[in-house]
Design goal:
With 233 residues, the chain is mainly α. It is built from twelve helices and three strands; from the N terminus they run H-H-H-H-H-H-H-H-H-H-H-E-E-E-H. It has two domains: 152 residues, Ribonuclease iii, N-terminal Endonuclease Domain, Chain A (Orthogonal Bundle), CATH 1.10.1520.10; 68 residues, Double Stranded RNA Binding Domain (2-Layer Sandwich), CATH 3.30.160.20. Strand 2 and strand 3 form a beta hairpin.
């Protein structure tokens, strides 16, 4: 493994016997398109395709093992969160994948290192690279360490997206005879491809909370969760 990739391999928790697999997992098609002599299949799109399937299987298997008493509907909601772009983006950011992406000049100039789709695809491609390098057991270790690290807390509540906090807040407000919650976007920041939104929720004149998210939906859920916690407290 070349020195340039060693810090990432350490963070991933897998030392590649075939380091070229990791390099490919980080290579966007724009990098290949700029070099006509390079085989176009050497970008990470096929690895991303494979990694998506491996991720779905390993997450499903882990959830059934951890929560054998859960009905199919609840398992599906938990899985949907764990394989969501929101969750995978957080994993990519924790690994600083943007620093390691191999991009074409145009993609580099347009802020590709911070683009959600590129980062999420890279996580799935890395999972496939680990599988091809060392098999399903090694892929499972990566999923357990990075994707399922929050799964132990899911039974107690879970992150926004698993529980609909907006609906729960509305029910709570109705039970307390308060007006229905009202949501407003109070701030947007960041480039177009990687915006962060701040949403404020109000119940009546005195009760309010705000939260950030990488989508308005996520920020709204987080804000509702904050205010709901206060009302329940």
């Amino acid at each position: 493994m070349g020195a340039a990739w060693e810090p990432l391999a350490d963070q991933i928790g897998h030392q590649f016997q075939r380091p070229e697999l990791l390099v490919r997992a980080l290579t966007h098609k724009s990098r290949i398109a700029e070099n006509s002599k390079v085989d176009p299949s050497r970008d990470n799109e096929q690895l991303e395709f494979l990694g998506d399937s491996i991720l779905g299987f390993l997450v499903s298997d882990a959830l059934i093992t951890r929560f054998p008493h859960y009905p199919e509907g609840k398992l599906s909601k938990l899985k949907a969160w764990l394989v969501s772009s929101v969750h995978l983006l957080a994993i990519a950011e924790s690994l600083h994948l943007g620093e390691y992406l191999r991009l074409g000049r145009g993609e580099e100039m347009s802020g590709g290192r911070g683009k959600r789709a590129l980062l999420v695809n890279a996580v799935e491609a890395i999972l496939a690279a680990i599988y091809l390098d060392a098999g399903m057991a090694a892929a499972r270790v990566f999923v357990e360490a990075h994707v399922l690290r929050e799964a132990g807390d899911l039974e107690a509540g879970g992150p926004p997206g698993v529980i609909d906090h907006k609906s729960l807040l509305q029910e709570k407000a109705q039970a307390l005879k308060y007006p229905p919650p009202a949501y407003v976007t109070v701030a947007e920041r960041g480039p177009e491809h990687a915006k962060t939104f701040t949403i404020e929720v109000r119940v009546g004149k005195a009760l309010q909370a705000s939260a950030e998210g990488i989508s308005k939906k996520e920020a709204s859920q987080r804000a509702a969760q904050v205010l709901l916690t206060r009302l329940n407290g």
